[in-house]
Write a structure and sequence with these properties.
Low-confidence stretches: 1-7, 9-21, 53-68
Mean pLDDT: 81
Largest sheet: 8 strands, antiparallel, barrel
Number of helices: 4
Strand content: over 45%
Structural class: mainly beta
CATH architecture: Beta Barrel
Number of domains: 1
Distance between the termini: 77 Å
């Protein structure tokens, strides 16, 4: 009798194990399938093996690779549009008489490439290589003509440069960044002209019979001489988001030159006023020479956009 009871108990234990065994609905025993990483959730998705973590951390969730690590390096294109003016412009009345007031408006455009190297999840190094187009303009006169009507005259300076921003970026909260660093500006070519516009701001044009084309009314002025190398300081802020599965930066950047842009930093002016005549050692009256420092620098506020291809 005791033997019969032992056999019955063993049989019941085996039967109970089969009754409560987990099945994934496709005839697979879940514990065995889970150890192989082949459990199906009923929608065709394979569930992870029991040794794998089923839930991702926040950093993993926002990672483009989904492996818990943000991409170490991103490479893409850069575009910036900026507006600004000059600072440290000479305030001397003698300088203004010869060179005019600081009524300049600067428009700046650059295009190039950007690389983002993540030192860690908080700090990144973001260098760029850009070609820049810089135009500064101010109104220096106006008038009226029987053919063109009312017009104004602008002085225009154009500068082409190669610039290398070297920026360190801090991301204190997800997707928002602060940046700061330096920019190395290598000035390549300039132009300097006097241009004529109508009252609506459209360039006045004439027909050139030699070329058979319409051309703007413009006169070349004395060459604008600038330094080849001018360093700048950079500070900015912005946001990073996903566009078409690629990262994109949009932000504001402040850029100001650390040294003067003019090649000639000291200019000599002869004072014409008779009240300022000097008497030399021989008793002769001579004009007084006044030297003025010209350390004009540029300052711009730029809207920047970086689109990372990979």
């Amino acid at each position: 009798m005791k033997k019969m009871m032992v056999v019955s108990a063993i049989a019941m234990m085996c039967l109970s194990a089969n009754v409560f065994a987990e099945d994934d609905g496709y005839g697979n025993d879940i514990p065995a399938a889970r150890s192989e990483g082949t459990v199906d959730d009923g929608y065709g998705n394979k569930m992870p093996a029991s040794s794998q973590v089923e839930y991702k951390s926040f950093e993993e969730a926002r990672s483009s690779r989904g492996n818990g690590q943000l991409p170490k390096v991103n490479v893409g294109g850069h575009l910036a549009i900026g507006f600004g003016s000059y600072i440290s412009y000479p305030s001397s009345e003698v300088f203004k008489e010869y060179y005019g007031k600081n009524d300049w408006t600067i428009i700046y455009l650059d295009l190039g490439g950007v690389l983002k190297y993540r030192i860690n999840n908080l700090l990144s190094f973001v260098p760029e290589l850009d070609f820049g187009f810089y135009i500064s303009q101010r109104e220096i006169g106006s008038g009226s003509d029987w053919f063109w009507g009312d017009y104004k005259v602008n002085e225009t300076r154009v500068l082409f440069d190669l610039n290398v921003p070297l920026v360190f970026r801090v991301t204190p909260v997800p997707f928002i960044y602060l940046e700061g660093g330096a920019r190395l500006n290598f000035n390549l070519a300039t132009s300097h002209s006097r241009d004529y516009y109508d009252k609506d701001g459209n360039a006045l044009q004439y027909y050139n019979w030699g070329s058979g084309e319409f051309e703007n009314v413009s006169e070349d002025l004395e060459k604008w001489e600038v330094k080849f190398f001018v360093p700048s300081a950079i500070a900015g802020l912005g946001a990073t988001f996903k566009l078409n599965k690629h990262e994109m930066d949009v932000g504001l950047r402040f850029n100001w030159d650390l040294t003067g842009i003019e090649k000639k930093e000291k200019l000599g002016f002869v004072i014409d006023s008779d009240d300022d005549l000097l008497i030399d050692q021989n008793g002769n009256k001579v004009r007084r020479l006044k030297v003025i420092e010209n350390k004009t620098r540029s300052f711009t506020v730029q809207l920047i956009m970086n689109y990372y291809l990979f």
